[in-house]
Design brief:
With about 850 residues, the protein is α/β, with parallel strands linked by helices. The chain is built from 39 helices and ten strands. It is elongated, with a radius of gyration of 38 Å.
Length: about 850
Amino acid sequence: MSDRTASEAPVAETPVTEAHVPATAAPVLDAPLLLGVRHHGPGSARAVRAALDAARPTAVLIEGPSEGDALLPLAADPQMRPPVALLAHAVDDPGRAAFWPLAEFSPEWVAIRWALAHGVPVRFIDLPATHSLALKEPHGEEAAPAPEAPADEAPTDPVLTPAVDPIRVLAETAGYDDPERWWEDVVEHRSPGADATSRTAADALAPFAALAEAMTALREAYGDGGHPRDAVREAYMRIQLRAARKEFGDGVAVVCGAWHVPALATRTTLAADRSLLKGLPKVKTEMTWVPWTHRRLARHSGYGAGIDSPGWYGHLFAAADRPIERWMTKVAGLLRAEDRSVSTAHVIEAVRLAETLAAMRGRPLAGLGETTDAVRAVMCEGSDVPLALIQDRLVVGETLGEVPDSAPAVPLQRDLTRTQRTLRLKPEALERQIDLDLRKETDAARSRLLYRLRLLGIGWGEPAEGRSRNTGTFRESWRLRWEPELHVRVAEAGVWGTTVESAATAKAEYQALAATALSEVTALAEQCLLAGLADALPVVMKALADRAALDADVGHLADALPALARSLRYGDVRATDTAALSEVAAGLAERICVGLPPACTGLDADGAEALRRQVDGVHSAIGLLTAGTRPAEADPATSRGAATAPTEADAAPVGPAAPAEAEDTSTVADATPAEATPTEADATPAEATPTTGLRDRWSALLRKLAGRDTVAGIIRGRAARLLLDDGGLTEDEAARLMGLALSPGTPPTDAAAWIEGFVGGASGGGMLLVHDERLLALVDTWLTGVPADTFTDVLPLLRRTFSAFEPGVRRTLGELARRGPAPEHAGSDGADHGYPGFGPGLDTDRADAVEPVLHLLLAGAPAPAEASA
C-alpha cells in the first residue's frame, strides 16, 4: 500500500487499516478492517467470506439502513431464502418506499450469515431510512441536502461534479472496453482453486487492499463522483464506526461499497461529521423483509446497483466446481424441456468451445460471453430465438425468495398471505396462467380474491383469454405474476382495511361517492359483483341511480349499459343478487331508445364510428338483458331467409321513402314500431317486467335508423346488419336496403360507409357476402361503377372493411368476383358453375357422403340406407 493511503488512515485515535497486513504474518485486528465490495457479485462474496474466516472480527458492520438491526436475526431463519430485500416505507405515505435487495451471492448477505453463524454481533451502519425516505422528492428521486453556509459567508452555488462509474474508469485504465468483462476477469471469475486450504490470511485480505488503493486514487480525482448525498451517508457511517469501536474494540470489520472505503478511512472529527447530519428531514418509517427476484436485481429493471446476469452470478456462486460444465447442463435441460433436441455430445462440444474461446480471448475462465457464443453455435444452431429463452430463464432468472412468517408485516399483508395459502395460490415470479371453474367453491373464492386485489390496485393477476374456447360465464382465465413492488402496493392499500375484503369494500364505497362519470360507477358496480363485495353494493347502486338520473348524454348511457348487462348475468354463476341492477339497466335502455335517433345525425366520420361501436355494445347488452325471453316479432314467417306474407310492416317500407315527419320526433312512442304485428299488440301487461318489450322497442329503433337517410351511413348499415342477424329483417329487405344505399345517386363515400357498417366490424360479415350472391353482386356492381375521380376517396374505407375479413374469406370473395355472376339457371343442368363449396346448386354426392357421419354424431344410429338394408 502506498504512503499516501497510509497517511489517510486515521479516523479517531487509533489508525484504520485497509485490509493491509504483512505478507508473512496473520493479521492482528488492532484497527477496523474495511472490506470494499461490489454489492452483488460471487467473487466479492467469496472473498468476503474468506476474509472474515481469516480475520475473525469482533463485530461485523454492514452498509444498510440502521433501523434494520432488529431484522437481522431473521436472516438465520430456515424459512429465509434469498433473494430478499429490506423494505422501508413511510407510515403516512406507504408509496414512499425504498428497497435494499440482497441475493445469495451478495457480499453483505454472506457477511450477515457468517456473523450469525459464528455468534458475532452484526449491525447496519448506513443512513437511517427515516432520513433517506424524507430526502426523496415526490417523484421518487433523491434530493441532496444543501450544506449550511457559515453566518459570515454568503451562500454560494453548489459545484456539480460529473457522475463517474468507478468500474468503467478502472476498466479503461486496464485497457478494457467493457467494464463488466474487466470486473469479471479480475474479481468474479477468480476462484480459490484446489489449494484454497494453503492460502494465508494475507492472501485473503490482499484483494481488498488493492481495491481500496484504487478507489482512493479515484476519489482523489473525482471527489464524490456526482453523488453529493454520499457525504452525508459516509459521515453517518463514520459515526457508527466510532460507536462500534468503542463497544467492541478495534477488531471490527466493515463490509461496504468499495467507493466508500476511502471516505471511512479519512481523518475527520466527530463534530464535523455531526454537522453534516444537522437539519436532516425525518419521516416515520416501518421496515420488514420481503421476497425479491433475480429479475429485479437486473440492471434493466432500473435498479441502480443492478447487474446484467443475476442468474449467471448465482450459478457461479453456488457451483462447487466445474461451473462451465454445470452451466451447460442447465442450458441443455431447459432446451430439452422446450422440446429441442440437445444431446450429451452437444453439451461436451459446447464446453470445449467455450473454454477454447476463453483461451483465445485471454480470459481466466470462460465467461458469460463465451458460454453464450458456444450455446448459440452448438445447441441453438446459430439461432437467437432459443437464446432469448436462455437469457430470460437462466441468465437473468425467475428465482423468487421467501421470508419467514415471523417477519413484520402490515395486517393486510398477513391476511393476504393467509388467504393465498388457504386457496393454494402461491406467489411466483414466473408468469403462469390458471383456469378457474366458478362452479367450484375454491375457484370462485380465487376469482373473488383476484378481483378484490385489482380493485385495490394490487395487480397480481390479469384476466386472460382462456385456453379452452368455452364461452360460458362459469369459466375464467388469469395470468399471475408476483412482483416485489406489490408489497408496496399492499402497504398502500392497508389504509383501507385490515383484510382484503374490508379494504376492497371501503375503497369501492369511496370510489362510488367520488366518481363523476356514469361509466365509472357502472364499471365499479361490475367490479363489486365480480369481487363479491355485497356490503359495498348498496352504496354503489345508490350512486349509480343518482348518476343515471342526472346524465342525459346518450353516449355516456350507451357506454354504461354493457357493464350493467354483463353484471346481471353474474347472478346465476356467483349467486349474487342482481335485482337492483335490473331496474337501472332497463331504465338506461329505455332512455337510450329515446335519445339515440337524434344523436345519430350530423356526425363526422370519427363520431359516427364511435357511435357505431356504442350501438354494437347496446345491442349486445339488450340481448343479455332479454336473454330467455322470446321477442314478440320472432315469428317463423319473418325469420331470416323465410318467405313472408304481406303484412302491415310491408305497407310501411324501410328506406329513404319513409315519411320525413317521423324524423322530427324522438320519444318513446317514436321508438315503438308503427308496423307492430298483432302478436306484439296482444302482449299481456300482467306479465310485465323491467325488460318486457325492450327487445321489440330496440328492433323498432334499429328499423328506423336503417331507413333514415339523415343517419350516418355506417350506422344505417350496422342497424340493417343487426336486424338481419336477429331475424328482424329478411334477406330480400336487406338486399333492397343495400340497393338503395348503393344507388347511383348516393355519394360514394356514404355508400362505402354503409358497406363498412353492414359487413365490417363484426364476425361473419365476409361470409354473408360469400353465401348471398345477390348482396355480393350489389357491392360488385356499385364498386365497378364508382367514378375514377372519387375512387381514391372510398378506397381507404373499403380497405379497412375488407382487410378485417379472414384470409380464406377474402380469397373466396376474390374467386367469386373473378368468376362473375352465376348463370340464371345454374345448378339445373348438374354442372358446377360456382366456386367449389359455394355453388348455387346442391351437390348430392357430397351430401350423401357426409350423411352417415352426421347420423352417428347426432343420433348414434346408422344412416337410413343402412337401416333399411
